[in-house]
Amino acid sequence: MYGVWTVDQVRAAEDVALAKAPDGALMRRAAFAVAVRAAAMLRAATGGVAGRHVVLLVGSGNNGGDALWAGAFLRRRAVAVTAVLFAPDRTHPPGLAALRRAGGRVVDAGDQVAAGRRDLVTGADLVVDGIVGLSARGPLRPAAAAWVAAVTSPVLAVDLPSGVDPDTGHAEPSAVRADVTVTFGAHKPAHVLAAPRCGLVQLVDLGLDLPAPDLEVLGPADVGRAWRLPGPADDKFTQGVTGVAAGSATYPGAAVLAVGSAVRATSGMVRYAGWAADEVRSRWPEVVATGSVADAGRVQAWAVGPGLGTGQAGRDVLAAVLDAGVPTCVDADGITLLARYPDLWDHREPDRTVVLTPHDREFARIAEPLGIELGTDRVAATRELARRLNTVVLLKGHATVIASPGGRTLVNAARSAWLATPGSGDVLTGLVGAALAAGGDPLVAAGAASWLHVRAGELAAGGAPTSASAVVAAVPGAVRAALVSAGRAPGETGELCDHERRYG
Ligand SMILES: NC(=O)C1=CN([C@@H]2O[C@H](COP(=O)(O)OP(=O)(O)OC[C@H]3O[C@@H](n4cnc5c(N)ncnc54)[C@H](O)[C@@H]3O)[C@@H](O)[C@H]2O)[C@@H](O)CC1
Ligand SMILES: [K+]
Question: Which CATH class is domain 2-217?
Fold first, then answer.
């Protein structure tokens, strides 16, 4: 688990640290780390450091100051450094002086354009983006955007890629796309909400005294610790029985996929209720499949919605599931039904756990009648919907945002987009259902399910197109990866698990 802090939180902590540290010390520490990373990137891209050419794109603030100081450090390693200033009158004076002293070249962005010389940047071995950092507001100004568009070399972003909103991660197409981002003091929301723009994120410790984080990111070990394992006293009923109410005559596949991921994620019982009982039985013979929720028997959690349809029949299924009074994951058509017929909420016991797993359009359907808009601040919108409906809300996306009614929020960033494939959401529904059935904190359960979904997607894809069925097949591998990280399963290299280590 690692934390993510908002700009306001970071600034407050930085102010305290700045007051204690000698003048400019924090910036030099930050810039030194940028220079070390820049040298490593030069070596990786060109096989060497000395004699290579680095272009610094320098804005008016301290972010530009970091870049200038980094340039001064790079000069000591005989790197040719050119700083392109976007606001020559407001450029960080000590940083500029340091670069000049070190023999760096300084040019005015406007003059270069006037002389037809924006190609300066295309000749660089590396570009350091110091245009804007924590104070960024809105998209890049056109002058800076034109320079960024001309870049062809690897890019190192200072603190965050310019043009990405630090707190929401929102980015217009003109924003910098970095290969590496070197950030200082704390991860900011942009690093997880706009991960593809940041590339590899390196955190430089500034010794900040930070409050509780605004967002949290679960790691494999957290998921491995949270995932319920069967113990010696367990049987198929005691590990949490998952119920799936999904699919229809038209969409039996949704049922097969949601059931399948629950089956593959746990060793406990999975029950199915719905119109696709025959298809489910033939694909998953270990599942007890019935036609209706009433006949399904007792479960510890329901997953409902995918492929259910939005007619009266689906409405009745959702009502029956909510009447069961157990933790429930509502997805897809289930969300549309809740949006269309709010009286369905009357079937829910107050405070009984509900996890909603909308994509953007489903989110809009259920949130807009409540006056909540899914704008560029996905975290704020998710939190607000979670609070208003008293549910956990998992907003799907390249970065999935998961908020509890109390505001605690997890973010899970995907590392590829192969999961954007039909049926992928149904797989997640089954995973959330299985995680809820196993018990524990619903937010962490939803977060763990999301992590496993992403990891199973990576395993299934392996860098090539995949399918939801392949993701289901990869679920045990994802669970294993989490358990290995948590030291609860033998590693892939054959290392012993805790039990074997102790007892041979
Ligand atoms: N405060 C600290 O302790 C430290 C701060 N550091 C650096 O300081 C940065 C923050 O510095 P500043 O607060 O001076 O602000 P920035 O350098 O982020 O921004 C400076 C100015 O850029 C302009 N600007 C805003 N949005 C823009 C846009 N979209 N396009 C073009 N220009 C825009 C604004 O006039 C803004 O005031 C951090 O990101 C980090 O890089 C580091 O030196 C580490 C220590
Ligand atoms: K930057």
Answer: alpha beta
Q: Which ligand is nearest to the CA of 133?
A: 1
Structure tokens at 372: 């909540």
141 lines ligand 1 (CB under 6 A): yes
Task: Give the model confidence (pLDDT) of 307-344 as tens digits.
Answer: 999 999 999 999 999 999 999 999 999 999 999 999 99
pLDDT above 60 (res 248): yes
Report which protein residue has its CA nearest ligand 1's atom 20: 61
Burial class (CB in 10 A: 0-12, 13-18, 19+), 253: buried
Q: Whose CA is nearest to atom 36 of ligand 1?
A: 135
Most ligand 1 atoms within 8 A of CB, residue of 20, 28, 90, 132 to mutate: 132
Predicted complex ipTM: 0.95
351 is in an annotated binding site: no
**Rounded (5°) CA angle 383-385-387:** 70
Cβ proximity of 321 and 345 under 8 Å: no
Q: In the prediction, which pLDDT does 504 show?
A: 41
Please indicate whether the domains covering 2-217 and 220-226+236-485 agree at the CATH topology level. no
Query: What angle (nearest 5°) sits at the alpha carbon of residue 192, between those of residues 329 and 67?
Result: 175
Query: Which token pair is 88?
Result: 């020559």
Q: Is 136 in the pocket of ligand 1 (CB under 6 A)?
A: yes
Q: How many CB atoms lie within 10 A of CB 38?
A: 31
Closest ligand 1 atom to 141 CA: 30
Q: 307 labelled as ligand-binding?
A: yes
Using CA of residue 148, residue 414, residue 382, residue 182, what is the dihedral sign? negative
- In angstroms, the CA 49 to CA 79 distance is 6
CA atoms within 13 A on the CB side of 419: 27
Atom 21 of ligand 1 has which residue's CA nearest to it?
61
The mean pLDDT of the chain is 95
145 lines ligand 1 (CB under 6 A): no
Please state the domain extents for the chain. 2-217, 220-226+236-485
- Looking at the structure, give the CATH architecture of the domain made up of residues 220-226+236-485: 3-Layer(aba) Sandwich (3.40)
Question: 388: helix, coil or strand?
Answer: helix
- Listed range (57-71, 105-119, 411-425) with the worst mean pLDDT: 105-119
Euclidean distance between the first and final Cα of the chain, in Å?
Answer: 31
**Which residue's CA is the closest to the ligand 1 atom numbered 4?**
27
- Distance between CA 318 and CA 414 in Å, rounded? 30
174-183, 387-396, 492-501: the lowest-pLDDT one: 492-501
Contact 220, 485 (CB under 8 A): yes
